[in-house]
UniProtKB/TrEMBL annotation:
PANTHER family: GLUCOSE-1-PHOSPHATE ADENYLYLTRANSFERASE, GLUCOSE-1-PHOSPHATE ADENYLYLTRANSFERASE-RELATED
Function field: Involved in the biosynthesis of ADP-glucose, a building block required for the elongation reactions to produce glycogen. Catalyzes the reaction between ATP and alpha-D-glucose 1-phosphate (G1P) to produce pyrophosphate and ADP-Glc.
Organism: Ruegeria spongiae
Any one GO molecular-function label of the UniProt entry: glucose-1-phosphate adenylyltransferase activity
Name under which the protein is recorded: Glucose-1-phosphate adenylyltransferase
Amino acid sequence: MKEDRFGLARQTMAFVLAGGRGSRLKEMTDIRAKPAVYFGGKTRIIDFALSNAVNSGIRRIGVATQYKAHSLIRHIQRGWSFFRAERNESLDILPASQQLDENNWYKGTADAVTQNIKIIEGYGPKYVLILAGDHIYKQDYSLMIEQHVRSGAKVTVGCIAVPRDEARGFGVMAVDENDKILDFVEKPAEPPTMPGDPTKSLASMGIYVFEAEYLYEVLKRDAANPHSSNDFGSDIIPEIVASGGAQAHPFSRSCVMSGLETEPYWRDVGTIDAYWQANIDLTDFKPELDIYATDWPIWTYSELTPPAKFIHNEEGRRGQAVSSMVSGGCIISGSTLYRCLLFTGVRTHSYSQLEGVVALPYAEVGRRAYLKNVVIDRGVKIPPGLIVGEDAKSDAKRFRRSDNGICLITQDMIDKLEG
């Protein structure tokens, strides 16, 4: 059956929706789209959806971009240029306002696909896999495609079990014992529960499988409807559910647990708190997401950097890191790190102390700084002696402080302090 799944994957084109801003990440998405936000020391968020597709055997991929896409496009060009046309492989970047007319931005998730139907048709896929480009997870899509073909459904929707109280922010479905979707409601006040478990609901992951010809038909009909918001969750999926043609695919059946994972792992890192927590969790002795497993690699653009370096060995001025992840090109100079995740090229200077710090590429921490529970944006220069994490009121005046006490620090915030 593995060969059958591989064959179906080769007949599938993945279409990644990567145009969203992710406004709940506040200043982190002022200059980049949410899928382009850094994650895990080396990767970007979008690398997980793209890697899942490649690892599942899919070799035709389109990425729809819109909001502040330069950082995302540059990353894809640098890190995902290994597709070869002579092997029937391709990765197309599909910016908004290019296909229909110069003023027509993507109006919704469905419209993003509609505007690119001609491009998709040009590759002649039999199936189309719609993906959200802004979640962290490992999944073998070939298993979901196989279920779709076997069931004969018009659409198969990837779903994950979440606590009922948290389901209000998702598209939620009611299913029968055979996973047929009976109802689909976008962000309901009273989410329907799972069969046999009243404490949980089935939330949509924003992953859909269609037969290509049927998808084109549905999208064209939706585009002609002046009352539609041209969105999969609000318009397309509820219509198919009403016709009785929608099937659910529980994430637990196709999640990849290739290393230390013991439970299906899926995260929406769309808030400062969730982003910080998911990154810091990677420093645990047994992290819930194992990014070290080599049988399901997360592909990315990897800069050429020297190894990380730890220098000085004096009392109070010792370069050391405990329960931390430190990327290439970092220099830990006489600093102490605990439960930190440092991206490429971060520099920390003597006598500084960092705890629970997520530092994006090329950030620099000055001497005698004390930082606790912070996210430092790319290239930020923390001035000597800065203290963050001891006085909540002071932190909130100077930086973006979350309800859970996580501070986001950008260069503009630092410049205002020094101005």
